[in-house]
């Protein structure tokens, strides 16, 4: 019986590798004073970064000027005390000319990052995506100005302050309490790409209620015993994935009510373990199942259920 399983590991994008140093967001003088020794993470318009040796490439901040650019966002402080900022810009070669670099998208290949890099890139991506879409006041359309080291924006006319928007979504593994779990394929995915079920939380709705509603809408199953597993930021552009598992009845027929799901099926633990051994969606495997990559909380949930006795 695996009804009570838990995540084996903290999801990658939820790991803490640097001090967020939130007090420096309001102590502007202290934040700017650290600029001379600070490091800079560049994120391009496709939310890609450069990596070298499993770490995000960080440049000398002073290469971008004598002070933080207006659109720079403060990401935190490393163990050695240096500040790290993020900017939206074209990618540039690392300071070390001998470094072997790759251009990587966090969404597809984040498993190569260490914890510090994963945290910095996830935070920078979330903040920069928000700034890209929050340049005007939602109240009166006045152009807003970034403040608090990029952690909020203010309307200079009214003083109205806006903060980064986060859209919560649930993601849930449905299983029978024993040896079978549901995996599904969205209509826009290629054949053989399967994952667990997810959906955005509606206004006035709890996470648990959302799980029940989304699964009924997407595959027609009535689930019970909804239990929380963990959460993960998903800054594409601004989501927070909240993970659950729930019990479903394999005797109940599937019904694809909202048109998002092309197919779904119950798979045994052995089948899912075999698919996990074949890699992930990027694999060239001919496996019947191709599952999400390690950057996603979906992978951690599936792996944790598959490993349960």
UniProtKB/TrEMBL annotation:
Gene3D superfamilies: 3.90.79.20, Nucleoside Triphosphate Pyrophosphohydrolase (3.90.79.10). One of its GO terms (cellular component) is cytosol. Keywords: Hydrolase, Magnesium, Manganese, Metal-binding, NAD. It catalyses: a 5'-end NAD(+)-phospho-ribonucleoside in mRNA + H2O = a 5'-end phospho-adenosine-phospho-ribonucleoside in mRNA + beta-nicotinamide D-ribonucleotide + 2 H(+). Its EC number is 3.6.1.22. One of its GO terms (molecular function) is NADH pyrophosphatase activity. GO terms for biological process: NAD+ catabolic process; NADP+ catabolic process. Transmembrane segments: none annotated. PROSITE patterns: NUDIX, NUDIX_BOX. Residues 164-289 form the Nudix hydrolase domain. Its cofactor is Mg(2+); Zn(2+). Signal peptide: none annotated. It is an enzyme of class 3 (hydrolase). The keyword Plastid does not apply. InterPro entries: NAD-cap_RNA_hydrolase_NudC, NADH_PPase-like_N, NudC-like_C, NUDIX_hydrolase-like_dom_sf, NUDIX_hydrolase_CS, NUDIX_hydrolase_dom, Znr_NADH_PPase. NCBIfam families: PRK00241.1 (NF001299). Belongs to the Nudix hydrolase family. NudC subfamily. This is NAD(+) diphosphatase.
């Amino acid at each position: 019986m695996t009804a009570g399983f838990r995540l084996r590991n903290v999801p990658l994008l939820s790991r803490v590798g640097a001090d967020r140093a939130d007090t420096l967001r309001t102590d502007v003088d202290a934040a700017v004073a650290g600029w001379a020794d600070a490091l800079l993470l560049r994120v391009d318009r496709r939310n890609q970064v450069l990596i070298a040796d499993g770490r995000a490439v960080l440049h000398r901040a002073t290469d971008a000027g004598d002070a933080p650019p207006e659109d720079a966002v403060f990401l935190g402080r490393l163990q050695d005390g240096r500040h790290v900022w993020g900017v939206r810009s074209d990618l540039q070669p690392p300071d070390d000319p001998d470094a072997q670099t790759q251009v990587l998208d966090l969404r597809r290949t984040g498993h190569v990052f260490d914890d510090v890099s994963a945290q910095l890139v996830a935070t920078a991506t979330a903040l920069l995506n928000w700034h890209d879409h929050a340049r005007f006041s939602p109240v009166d359309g006045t152009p807003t100005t970034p403040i608090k080291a990029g952690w909020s924006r203010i309307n200079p006319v009214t003083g109205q302050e806006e903060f980064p928007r986060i859209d919560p979504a649930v993601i849930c593994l449905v299983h029978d309490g024993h040896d079978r779990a549901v995996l599904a394929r969205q209509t826009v995915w290629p054949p053989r790409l399967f994952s667990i079920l997810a959906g955005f939380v509606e206004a006035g709705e709890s996470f648990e209620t959302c799980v029940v509603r989304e699964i009924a809408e997407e595959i027609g199953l009535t689930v019970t015993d909804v239990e929380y597993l963990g959460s993960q930021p998903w800054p594409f552009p601004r989501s927070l994935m909240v993970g659950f598992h729930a019990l479903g009845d394999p005797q109940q027929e599937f019904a694809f009510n909202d048109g998002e799901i092309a197919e779904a099926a119950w798979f045994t633990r052995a089948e899912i373990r075999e698919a996990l051994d074949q890699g992930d969606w990027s694999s060239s495997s001919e496996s019947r199942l191709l599952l999400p990559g390690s950057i996603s909380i979906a992978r951690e949930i599936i792996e944790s259920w598959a490993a349960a006795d």
